[in-house]
Amino acid sequence: MSKVGGKAFDFKLFLKVLGYAKPYQRLFTFSMILTVLLGALGTARPILIRQVIDDAILGYDAPMLLKLTFMLVGLLVIESIGQFGFMYAANWLGQSIIKDIRVELYDKLQTFRLQFYDKTPIGQLVTRVVSDIETISQIFSQGILVIFGDLFRILVMLGAMFFFFHPILVLVSLSIIPVLFIATRWFQRGIKGAFQRVRNEVSNLNTFVQEHLGGMSIVQAFGREEQEFDKFKTINDRHRNANVESIFYYALFFPIIEVLSAISIGLAVWYGGMNAAVGGSVTVGELTAMIIFIGMLFRPLRQLADRFNTLQMGMVASERVLNLLDSNHEVEPNGDIRLGKLEGDIVFDQVYFHYKENEPILKEVSFSVAPGETVAIVGATGAGKSTIISVLMGFYPYTKGSVQIDGNELTSLDLHTLRQQMALVLQDVFLFSDTVRSNIVLGNQHITDIEIMQAANDIGIEEFIDGLPQGLDYNVQERGGVLSAGQRQLLAFLRAYITDPQVLILDEATSSIDSHTEELIQRALIALTQDRTSVIIAHRLSTIQHADKIVVLDKGVVVETGGHQALLKSKGAYYRLYEKQFAAEV
Ligand SMILES: Nc1ncnc2c1ncn2[C@@H]1O[C@H](COP(=O)(O)OP(=O)(O)O)[C@@H](O)[C@H]1O
Ligand SMILES: [Mg+2]
To answer: Most buried one in 60, 163, 353, 575, CB count within 10 A?
Structure first.
């Protein structure tokens, strides 16, 4: 069996996790005191039973028997109430802490730059935010507090045994304990590796399901159901195997402990009986109490291994989550200049960019857009057009050159305030599974339905909105699945228009759109670009013809810039592109 994560307990990490309990200090202390009290109370029971047998029953003392019985019952009641209080408090604590961590993590994820999301499977992140954090709560609900309580209880019990009972009886009975420790170590090691594998497989399952349900149309369109199903079954097999492996350890460990505890009781009976038989000092009450103690001692000892694992698992999860919280290099770099109202003057000056080292995507890209102007970027697929937009939005950092907005270097600007004045319409419009209204206003409660309809009227799509089954209340389902690509684009236009941005950035949809929607889009586009700086990745001749300037991109290099007519006349790259793509349209 491979040894996974063989490193010792990470105390620094542990303290860091404990730090999250700080706001709940009182509750934490309360739980701690409660668990200590419970440990002490539990120990009193066998001692009382010894007294019941030796003094009350064997001493024929009826009043004492009654008194002791009441005490025992009272003790049990108090213990039960304490147990309830402890369980409630410890879980309240655990849940409160993970609520805090989850909020912090989600907030952090919102600040990560897109590069991070390019390379991190979403399913893995979902696992972090949902189930890993759940595991952290167990550190508090089933981990440290209980471990502390159990250890304390064991110590008190051992002390009480030696104090009240015949020391040799105690020693002989407990002589089996070293074997117990060896068994526990074996169990703990094995189960830890198994649990880690379980967690990995859960993450794999999440990633797979997430991706394949999201991409179901591709799976079905290409008839890949069988193959993907086989992959899924393989992952599921591994998941089962990992779980079964962990069960193997439990299934073996618990009977072993039972046997050990039986041996321990046997030893107690043997020595105690022998001692009593030869007239020694071990009493019947003492022997009975000892047997009860052994049972009480083995229970926490048996659980301790499990608890340490819970703690370990919580620590593994904490490490993953805290690593994510600490990964500041993933946070979007941000300047601190907050621009007032934008002019909308954009300059790209010899900009270089790459996603991966040594694979330049943009090379020496230069162009400028004057305030109010519309610039169309054209070029073949993969030329780097969308990348220009990503760079302009500050999603990805450029490596060389300069991008300026109103004369300020992009990297020195506060992106949040900048983006508030820019509107982005992507090729593949992303809609949330919500109403048309929510998708248009994106959380801005101040925009009224009247304003939405006015805006729709402005860009000429009022009829389209009215024509939706429930108008603004229409739920577009996940990713806008019930709308066509063209319709989604219209909604995205409205979403952009309603924020009245100073700069409009648009990656035109390439998919073919029916002529009616096409017409709507063209009209909307004219309204949309009116009086604002616009950068449009254009795929339609009509859009290009309306532009003030055309930038022709080829393999990451700007090969031509100019007006439609002038570029056609010079018979260069634009002319060839035009011949290939648009001549048929005219
Ligand atoms: N997130 C990304 N990570 C790595 N490479 C990318 C990423 N996005 C695009 N690319 C690559 O950059 C090049 C330009 O892509 P893109 O700007 O989308 O082209 P266009 O929009 O002109 O079709 C392509 O070769 C593409 O594979
Ligand atoms: Mg593109």
So the answer is: 353
